[in-house]
């Protein structure tokens, strides 16, 4: 029988903050029920809190959202349907019947994303809520750009977050069994917020507001110091930490105090992203042969994300997360910080903040999700959101798992989709 998870209790200060923030946005409550159709599906998982939405019932906090309803414990519904009978023994799902969802991060955005999703349930409503929360027309920005505005951190993070969850709506419409059989999820950087919404740990509207605060804070932090991110393809001889050390020494010789140059993303074997002061990254490019780097490329981002240069962004995000209701996920969600499963609400709250100044351990996360005994089949994997970068990374991390990978497109128009 499924266990019951108690709700996280917000402090009076957090409740007051929540009400104040949402009043300014003109919305009734920060805690409306999930408006996504898949969020109402009861997860068939042992030991997890599960909720379903009752059509027409009032939402939590008194809000009423399209597709939303009153959250009730799945155990109660099961008991009401079977009476006093003993519940049937839960069938253990073979690995090949399970699915994994991967949510992309910043850098995957492009003008036109979302065009092929507007006819699916709730997607337009998600964009309408986003316009109220964000204060600008995100749908227009996604569909028509300009690209330079969409690429700005404060815009692209909410855009990727929403487009990814809209892709889940499409997947749920086309193949609902994929959603029902999902056993794990992971998101790259901002994609982790979408993964947690999908898993039932965060409310869509609350998470979107947290992403807004996060994106604005990261934009501000990146503008304070000339910095960036360098993609590096190395080889066995490459010593990334030593290269970063010498790059920092070079910056000190230029008079830069407390220079930053460190690994910010672990992508796949022999592939890293190094972030920090621009002078340090330029030094690494000029000396790439010395450090056995096969290829280097500056990324089109505005700052050194996932390094200590993002420290100023941690406090705004920490404050907003105090006013957000966080619950235990229905399914396993893996943290970027340590590549381990989130265990409880405080764990999520703490690591989402720590993620800003910690490297994204994506390679380690792929190993954690797909590691299995020889002969055990792999689950089907779906990348939901713009771009196919996570699929390319998975191919380099685990070729066998990648053979069961699919991407849910967010740009195809309806005519092409129906052909």
Automatic annotation (TrEMBL):
Q: Which keywords appear in this protein's UniProt record, sorted alphabetically?
A: Fatty acid biosynthesis, Fatty acid metabolism, Lipid biosynthesis, Lipid metabolism, Mitochondrion, Transferase, Transit peptide
Where in this chain does the record put each Malonyl-CoA:ACP transacylase (MAT) domain?
102-397
Q: Does the keyword Transmembrane helix apply?
A: no
Instruction: Spell out the InterPro entries in the cross-references.
Output: Ac_transferase_dom_sf, Acyl_transferase_dom, Acyl_Trfase/lysoPLipase, Malonyl_transacylase_ACP-bd, Mitochondrial_malonyltrans
Task: List the pathway annotation.
Answer: Lipid metabolism; fatty acid biosynthesis
Query: Which Pfam families does this one have?
Result: Acyl_transf_1
Taxonomically, which superkingdom?
Eukaryota
GO molecular function terms attached to this record: [acyl-carrier-protein] S-malonyltransferase activity
Family per similarity comment: Belongs to the type II malonyltransferase family.
Q: What is this protein called?
A: Malonyl-CoA-acyl carrier protein transacylase, mitochondrial
